[in-house]
Amino acid sequence: MASSSLSEEELTLTVKWSGNEYTVRVCGDDSVGELKRRICQLTNVLPKRQKLLYPKLGSKLADDSVLLSHLPLKPSLKMTMIGTVEDDIIVDQVDSPEIIDDFELGQDESTDIKDKEVNKQKLRRRIYQYKIELRNPCREGKKLLVLDIDYTLFDHRSTAENPLELMRPYLHEFLSAVYAEYDIIIWSATSMKWVELKMGQLGVLNNPNYKITALLDHLAMITVHSDSRGPFDCKPLGLIWGQFPEFYSSKNTIMFDDLRRNFVMNPQNGLTIKPFRKAHANRDSDQELVKLTQYLLAIAELDDLSSLNHKNWESYNEDNFKRRRHS
Ligand SMILES: [Mg+2]
């Protein structure tokens, strides 16, 4: 195991690609996968398209889970990247890896990941490195809803002539209704080109009844390590809170994702949504977004959302219904 001082140490690497040199700042506790994301940010070559070459390292750079502190990298040596920018976005869809089944981390392990200094440091660096571009201004007094795309709003694994057939039912009704109380940010573990294309096709970016505050992509994620599952990526809401502290915080933010592990840095703010798969079979029966509209509007009255246990959202809806009937 690397010592913590070594793993938190900043590394400045020079990467050569296509006749240019790029400076990449990472730390020892970052993985090769994370390094590829930083290179992607500079070159637009997607991580899965990158092949990294470095003297004497051979195939070690082919394993995305290897920590940089475990590799003998020297600032004096340059890395070479081979890869081409994705022109055909459709290729991205076909190639996108099947999402690994969600896994539950133990309570202790989750707390540990959230509180680890090295992860807090990664978050601070991400706040500094990843600039969120607002499509529409943040609104005073509104709460914040952060939404995943794949299997949350859209079934990206089924095929259809028209992408609208793969959209989760009631998506526009849901967004229109919750927009009254929430700013909406969409955060997907894919590339920004893909996020924009997909949301554009579904008509989410130009709907007259709601506005999207911002789109975030895979480059905004951080890699953390769990003892039981090894490295994995997550979506730290602290990135948004750090850039818009006057509007958003742990008290007024809720995030929907079908993968619980994406919440590991902020478990109190995540709601695990039932995945929307097999769109053709399920699009007539799926009511999740209708029920979640009720939940979001009911809890919007509260000053502090972080005291709720979103695992119990369905019973909150029922209790709320009873309360209303009796009053
Ligand atoms: Mg998903």
From TrEMBL:
Catalytic activity reported: O-phospho-L-seryl-[protein] + H2O = L-seryl-[protein] + phosphate; O-phospho-L-threonyl-[protein] + H2O = L-threonyl-[protein] + phosphate
CDD domains registered for this protein in UniProt: Ubl_UBLCP1
Any single biological process term in GO: regulation of proteasome assembly
Any one Gene Ontology cellular component term annotated for this protein: nucleus
Gene3D superfamilies, per database record: HAD superfamily/HAD-like, Phosphatidylinositol 3-kinase Catalytic Subunit, Chain A, domain 1
UniProt protein name: protein-serine/threonine phosphatase
Compartment(s) of residence: Nucleus
Chief location bin: nucleus
Matching NCBIfam families: HAD_IIID1
Domain Ubiquitin-like per the UniProt entry, residue ranges: 11-82
Keyword Iron-sulfur applies: no
Cofactor requirements of the protein: Mg(2+)
InterPro entries: FCP1_dom, HAD-like_sf, HAD-SF_hydro_IIID, HAD_sf, Ubiquitin-like_dom, Ubiquitin-like_domsf, UBLCP1
Domain FCP1 homology: 138-299
Class of the enzyme per the UniProt entry, highest EC level: hydrolase
GO molecular function: metal ion binding; protein serine/threonine phosphatase activity
Keywords: Hydrolase, Magnesium, Metal-binding, Nucleus, Protein phosphatase
